[in-house]
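Record Lipoprotein, 109 aa.
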Amino acid sequence: METLMVRKLIALAVISLSLGACDMVAAVKDGMAQSEAAAESIEKQVGVKPQVGFSYHNGSFTAATIQFPSIPSASLPEVEKITRKAVLDSFKGEPENLVVSFVFKKNGS
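=>
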């Protein structure tokens, strides 16, 4: 009788973990689609396609990171306004922190 109860508890735990993993996979998949949409929106406006990362903690949208491979021609205030709007529209929410960065490659590379 105890063996049957243990098996049922193990089966319940496996099912619970599987369902939780499905939610996590779906959340990451949605985040990647939102990230790509934000990157494309930004590229249309500034002419440079950035990498867009995101971070959630306990269900809160804590950060969006926008990394440009070079400096766009738009001014920094314009870049901030464009990236903030693209993130807000694509992720349907505003992160606690918006990080915008630029890559400066090593000379001769």
